[in-house]
Design goal:
The chain is α/β, with parallel strands linked by helices and 303 residues long. It has three domains: 13-106, FAD/NAD(P)-binding domain, CATH 3.50.50.60; 140-205; 217-298, Glutaredoxin (3-Layer(aba) Sandwich), CATH 3.40.30. It has helices at 3-10, 23-34, 65-78, 121-124, 146-158, 166-177, 182-192, 196-205, 225-229, 232-243, 287-302; strands at residues 15-19, 38-42, 57-58, 63-64, 82-85, 88-96, 99-106, 217-222, 256-261, 272-275, 278-281. The strands form four sheets. It has a four-stranded mixed sheet, with helices on one face. A three-stranded parallel sheet has the order 1-2-5. Strands 3-4 form a two-stranded antiparallel ribbon. Strand 10 and strand 11 (278-281) form a beta hairpin. Helix 6 (166-177) packs antiparallel against helix 7 and helix 7 (182-192) packs across helix 8 (196-205). It binds FE2/S2 (inorganic) cluster. FE2/S2 (inorganic) cluster (FES) is lined by residues 222, 224-227, 263-267, 270, 272.
Length: 303
């Protein structure tokens, strides 16, 4: 036998059909394709990835599921031994082991797969339009009280016409009310014409925003590395002891809200505390005097 004949004989021959384009199907297709088989990867849906593509984390390690899955999807999509048969299903299987014939029904996609670049223009220009199925709801405006509505309107007017107005508007509302009331968020979403989910995305991303009422004075204690090694944790305990609350809580009289942050950008001064945007490099021993300053100034205002 010549070397060429040996190579041809030892190469895998035939083709394999893998059913299901989930993570198991994709991995099987890749393994078979890497072994030299021609692989047809068939799935009823219009894309590979399956349920795993819809997950955020994987059990039990809490790894990001897309970080595991997406390199495999790209590899499967580009592998020269893999042919994707999406939007397809099996009609009939005949034959016997080693010689199966499979009849596949491929549903129409209405786009040329070989020309599609995923630009989305076809969807934007589609002549078929669907009416929204979401029932009309009463405007949030009716549910907001007079003075609150006036404040919201003046904030929204200030940022009128600004395409990136969402964050500045939320900052102004947060400053005005000391937190972001639910009605205000729904009103902002309605007026700026952005989905409420997007508003909540922004609000929950930045720690500067609060969804619960805060105290008159907001105390932020830095727990970043630079402050931590210089006693940031002891400063926090001293404030908690003095005010009788834990981090994340507000005093009963609504005077102080205590929060922790990971860096206040003043590492050289650590440990640092910020009260109402005023920076204080401090120590546990100085806390009482510092807080008294705010307690007394409030008492002075009341008398
Ligand atoms: S770590 Fe505290 S200010 Fe940077």
């Amino acid at each position: 036998m010549t070397v060429q004949e040996h190579e041809i004989k030892s190469k895998p021959v035939g083709s394999v059909l893998v059913l299901g384009g989930g993570i198991a199907g994709v991995q099987s297709a890749l393994d078979l394709a890497d072994s030299g088989f021609k692989v047809y990867l068939l799935d009823r849906s219009t894309s590979i990835g399956g349920v795993m593509a819809q997950l955020d984390k994987t059990f039990p390690t809490n790894d990001c599921s897309m970080c595991i899955l997406s390199p495999k999807l790209v590899e499967a999509g580009r592998h020269h031994n893999i042919e994707l048969l999406m939007n397809s299903e099996i009609k009939e299987v005949s034959g016997s082991a080693g010689d199966f014939q499979v009849e596949i029904l491929k549903h129409p996609r209405f786009v040329r797969e070989d020309r599609c670049t995923g630009c989305g223009e076809c969807a934007a220009n589609c002549l078929v339009r669907y009416e929204s199925q979401i029932p009309e709801t009463e405007s949030v405006r009716e549910q907001i009280q007079g003075s609150e509505l006036q404040k919201l309107d003046s904030i929204l007017k200030k940022h009128e016409g600004d395409p990136g107005a969402l964050i500045p508007v939320l900052q102004d509302i947060n400053d005005e009310f000391n937190y972001l009331p639910e009605d205000a968020l729904r009103y902002v979403a309605e007026i700026l014409n952005v989905p409420l989910s997007q508003v909540y995305n922004v609000v929950t991303f930045y720690t500067t925003f609060s969804l619960t009422p805060r105290g008159e004075h907001v105390i932020k204690v830095c727990q970043g590395t630079a402050c931590h090694v210089r006693g940031g944790a002891r400063v926090l305990s001293e404030i908690e002891r003095n005010l009788g609350i834990d981090a994340g809580e507000t005093t009963e009289d609504q005077k102080f809200t205590l929060e922790t942050v990971n860096c206040l950008g003043a590492c050289a001064l650590g440990p640092v505390v910020v009260i109402d945007k005023e920076y204080y490099p401090t120590t546990p021993a100085k806390i009482e005097k510092l807080l008294n300053k705010y307690k007394k100034s409030d008492e002075g205002e009341e008398t």
